[in-house]
Write a structure and sequence with these properties.
mainly alpha, DNA polymerase, domain 1, 5 helices
């Protein structure tokens, strides 16, 4: 068996064991990738006390907006525009976490050959809008 055949056999074995055969990379949505590839690999690396909070954050800030987007349709412009839209209403911490989780997920998609390059690699966290101070 040559290297290519061995790789294919391994992919088939992994798909059979995980019971979620990967659709062709062009049809993979961010939600499918998160649930079937990213989460099973990364969840165990997160602190057990942080897991529910991290999953809730990803669901609320990323999957609600981009869950049905195909990975190949996500581009830097779309992602940066989203961060810019969040800036007036959210803290720098929320903006930074959003960028970090996007970058992490899409970096993993590149590693697993679902994407040729990571569109979130050079996203810039915008400055959050300053709230006007009120005098007591």
């Amino acid at each position: 068996m040559d290297k290519g055949q061995a790789k294919q056999k391994l992919r088939d074995l992994i798909a059979r064991e995980t019971r979620t055969a990967a659709p062709p990379p062009i049809n993979v949505t961010l939600r499918w990738f998160y649930e079937n590839r990213f989460l099973p690999q990364k969840e165990e690396q997160w602190k057990i006390t942080s897991r529910p909070k991290t999953k809730r954050f990803i669901e609320n800030y990323l999957l609600k907006r981009f869950g049905d987007f195909r990975l190949v349709d996500l581009d830097k412009f779309t992602l940066q525009t989203y961060l810019n839209e969040l800036a007036p209403n959210f803290s720098k911490s929320v903006l930074a976490k959003t960028r970090v989780y996007l970058n992490s997920m899409l970096s993993e998609a590149v590693e697993l050959d679902f994407l040729p390059k990571n569109p979130a690699a050079k996203l810039v966290v915008p400055a959050p809008a300053r709230k006007a101070r009120t005098c007591p």
